[in-house]
From TrEMBL:
It comes from the Bacteria. The lineage of its organism: Bacteria, Pseudomonadati, Bacteroidota, Cytophagia, Cytophagales. This is RidA family protein. CDD domains: YjgF_YER057c_UK114_family. Signal peptide: none annotated. It comes from Chryseosolibacter indicus. Coiled coil: none annotated.
Amino acid sequence: MTREIIYSPQAPEPIGPYSQAVQAGNLLFISGQIALDKPSGQLVTSDIVSETKLVMYNLEQILKAAGLDFSNVVKSTIFLKDMNAFPKVNEVYGSYFKTAPPARETVEVSRLPKDVNVEISCIAVK
């Protein structure tokens, strides 16, 4: 099985010892993305809708770097600082999966990197 590191210059740099994504065979494993704006280097945490849109944008850029899009996503995980934000996050997230959405779990956690409110990871298949 081949293993390739996938990198998008349009998505934020990893903030630790990990890759944006790893392709293993026909599977793409994308690390959790937060609302870090690549051009400015700033976090966007002013409201959960804007934050979630930027997370999804970052995921999209990594998918594109692998030659994929959201239709290739088969599994995702959403980590939320506050489950009360779930309806708004779910609405934004759902707008990227109009048909045949992937399997998913959503988990409330006590803290996320850089104290963001949402982080999303996913697995895609070619």
